[in-house]
Amino acid sequence: GAYHLFPSEPYGRWLTVGGSFQDAAGTRAWLTGVGGANGALLDQARAWHERHDGFTTKQGTIQARAVIGTGLLSIGAVEVPPAADAGGNVRAEIRMVDGDVTVPTRSAHQGPLGTHTPLGEPVHVQAVCGVPHAALGGDPSVTEKYTDYLLTGRTPRKTVGPCQPRGTVFEIRELSLPRARATRAAASPAPTGGGPSASLVAAAQKGDIQLIEVPGSPLAVLSDAKPVDLQLVDDSRRVTLRVQRYVGDDAPVESTYSDLGGDVRAVTGPDGTLSVTVDGRPVAPDGQAPGGEPGPGGGTGGGPGAPAGGPAPQPGTPAPTTGSGGAPVPAPAARKASRLRLSSVSARRRARLTRVTVRGRLLGGASGKVTVTATDGRRTTRRTVAVRKTRFGLTLKLKNAGRRLRVTVRYAGSRTHRSTQTSRAVRVRLR
Q1: Within its chain, how far is the Cα of 377 from the centroid?
Q2: Nearest 5°: phi and psi at 307?
Q3: Strand 93-99 and strand 72-80: pairing?
Q4: Choosing a second label site near 424 at 20 to 30 A (CA), which of 184, 210, 283, 367?
Q5: What angle do helix axes 39-52 and 24-32 make, rounded to 10 degrees?
């Protein structure tokens, strides 16, 4: 049943508890403890995966071909606290990866994208770009390449190949969604827009967005390939928006829009630009003045306009927002700048395993955690680590890595400090 949908051990570490990635034992301990999962059913599902995971040709007696979808944001990891809060609730944060909305690319390929040694036997694998999982079997980008193979056994023609996902995720806090039969809708290949009056549920049902109904914090997943004019909430509720901008395998760039009330909308463009408005007036992320630095979508966040008949805000000055009764509410205080400094980055390979060691400092008075990502363009690993007395350090492990890596360190920001990130290219040395 549902337990078979948990990632199996070859998928890799997908659960983070209190900032630390969990191995199979740690994952089981959290799921059966805090998560309340049935340990016996979980073990049965894992045993099934051990027997059946991986490609097979039945010892060469059958031909096996695979076509996988790429370029669409898909659930790939989950972050949770070590224990429930005082009310017995657990707040989970979802991380997106490359995939076809339903299946992450790593799972579909039975290994890293482009690998010639997938789990099981090395069957012929091709990729297509931007096609949702449910549409793969009937999409022309697949059927036109495989028709002759199915009819005559001729070698399939080359597909368009993989692409990287580009999109924006909205976490909408304090918003209760209307009941809907489908809790999640996959992006559709039809090039239709959500329209200015589209609600979250209606937009998901039309295939314009993905909707992931996390209790208390639903997620709206938008793709650059489908620009929308989307109503996030009507004037009967107040929300806080946490926005994550994803481009490929890079760590997401995050920003927050706090305490919004009214007709809250998001408008996106094909190049990832983003505009958030309240009652038709643009608003900026926390800590940014109207016309200030670019928001996570690549555009420039505007500020709320002045009340009707009042003066417009001066450039570079946060304008007041209006509360539920129409009274002006001061804009939040500007957040301070934070800076990341990498002290040392090294990568050493022994046999098939590469160890990436990163040391650095978070400056400007900021505190919290940083996320470190290492990638060779095909394989990616990341981990979150706490900053202690401005310093952080960790070692990442990456199997079958290439000769060059890019290491990115990302600080997501806080109530007092803005987000920042830095990266460095590093050559892998042999031990």
Answers
A1: 17
A2: -60, 155
A3: antiparallel
A4: 367
A5: 150
pLDDT in tens, 65-93: 999 999 999 999 999 999 998 888 888 88
Provide the phi-psi class of 133: left if phi over 0, else alpha when psi is between -120 and 50, else beta.
alpha
Backbone dihedral region of 2: left (phi > 0), alpha (psi from -120 to 50 degrees) or beta?
alpha
CA pair distance 146, 65, nearest whole angstrom: 10
Q: Give the C-alpha distances (Å, rounded to integers) separating 66 from 49, 137, 143, 146.
A: 19, 11, 12, 11
- Give pLDDT tens digits for 253-288: 899 999 888 888 899 988 888 999 998 899 999 877
The predicted model scores a pTM of 0.64
Pair 163, 70: CB distance under 8 Å: yes
Rounded Cα gap, residues 155 and 146, in angstroms: 8
Q: Are 350 and 337 in contact (CB under 8 A)?
A: no
Q: Residue 318 gets which letter from DSSP? A: P
Q: Which residues pair with 222 in a beta bridge?
A: 168
Tokens encoding 189: 């290949």
223: nearest Cα among 263, 255, 191: 191
What's the rounded Cα separation, in Å, for the pair 76 and 39? Answer: 22
